[in-house]
Amino acid sequence: MKKIIAFLVVVFIVGTALKAEKRPDPQPAPETNEAFKLGMAGYTFVKFGIDKTLETLKQADIHYLCIKDFHLALSSTDEQIELFNAKLEENGITGYAVGPIYMKNKVEVDRAFEYAKRVGVKLIVGVPEYDLLPYVDKKVKEYNFKMAIHLHGPDINKYPDAKDVWDHVNDLDPRIGMCFDMGHDTRNGNDAVQDLKKYHSRIFDIHLKDVTGNTGAGYSVEVGRGIIDFPAMVNMLRKVNYNGVVSLEHERQMDNPFMGIAESIGYFRGVITSTQNK
User: Fold this and answer.
1) Which of 143, 138, 201, 136 is nearest to 174 (CA)?
2) What are the strands, taking DSSP E only, across 105-167?
3) Inter-residue long-range contacts of 262-268, CB under 8 Å, 24+ positions, other chains counted
4) How many other β-carbons are positioned within 10 Å of the β-carbon of residue 7?
5) Contact by Cβ (8 Å): 193, 229
6) Tens of pLDDT, residues 18-69
7) How far separated are the first and last CA of the chain, in Å rounded?
8) Are the C-beta atoms of residues 170 and 196 closer than 8 Å to each other?
9) Which of 249, 252, 211, 274 is nearest to 38 (CA)?
10) Most distant pair of Cα atoms in the chain: their distance
11) What is the radius of gyration, based on Cα positions, of the chain?
């Protein structure tokens, strides 16, 4: 009897090990079949190098990165850009855009477009001065790139919310639109879900963020801890058929953002799953 029991124990252990070997490691996030993709805004890692950034994206099962210039300088050589892109590819990451890039004159606009071209992307998240918009209009026609103007809430005196960007670009080339920062839009007193609905035709990139209030006193918190209605936001993304990237821009405890990143991504993925087919 003891031999039979021992044999059964061995069979159980071996069988369990074989089953475990069939599971992928790391195990990927469940497929959602959404038109939009989940990504990360490079600014989240302002205090960290590209290696830590890529390590974090892999752990979070995120495959899209908006490249910030502190990871790949605007003055990078073609060789440096080639090596950077190779590192992204090795880690299963797609650099889908560059920015935000601030542009105070035409030279800086030219540099931003040429940088994006050399990096190999066709979306610039930018902050051009208002009086440069006619020149930006000319450049998007020349390069056939999209310019997504980043809105900043009440903290600076230009592009405070989605309406302001819309009012300034609506008569320009349709490739000039906005990076819709839902947190800053909310802090400027708006309903971010309704603004996504109103202005979606000019929204080319989205910064995923939550905030504590709809005034300048509101501040960034982990997604799900603030006042933004994320089930309504996800359903609106579907309704307007947004097919770009929704990139987490985590701006809390930036010396050690990793728990906040994990919490925010996990919550948002949970909302996506829980609202499917409803």
Assistant:
1) 201
2) 123-128, 146-150
3) 262/59, 262/60, 263/222, 263/223, 263/224, 264/208, 264/210, 264/222, 264/223, 264/224, 265/38, 265/60, 265/62, 265/223, 267/222, 267/223, 267/224, 267/230, 268/38, 268/208, 268/223, 268/224, 268/230, 268/234
4) 10
5) yes
6) 455 565 666 665 666 899 999 999 999 999 999 999 999 999 999 999 999 9
7) 55
8) no
9) 249
10) 88
11) 22
Residue 259, Ramachandran bin (φ over 0: left; ψ between -120 and 50: alpha; else beta): alpha
Q: Can you tell me the distance from the alpha carbon of 230 to that of 270, in angstroms, rounded to the nearest whole number?
A: 10
Of 192, 207, 201, whose CA–CA distance to 172 is shortest?
Answer: 201
Domain covering 32-274 in this structure, CATH number:
3.20.20.150
Map tokens 């579907």 to a residue.
238
Closest by CA to 42, choosing from 61, 63, 70, is 70
Cα–Cα nearest to 247, from 226, 229, 261: 261
260, 253 Cβ separation under 8 angstroms: yes
Would you tell me how many other CB atoms lie within 10 Å of the CB of residue 234? 22
* 245 token code pair: 């990237």
Q: Single out the residue of 20, 158, 144 nearest to residue 100, CA to CA.
A: 158
CA distance 228 to 209: 9
Residue 91 neighbours by CB under 8 Å, 6+ apart: 54, 57, 58
CB 181 within 8 A of CB 209: yes
List, for residues 158-203, the tens digit of each pLDDT value: 999 999 999 999 999 999 999 999 999 999 999 999 999 999 999 9
Q: Are 70 and 43 in contact (CB under 8 A)?
A: no
pLDDT at 28: 64
Q: What is the 8-class DSSP label of residue 29? A: P
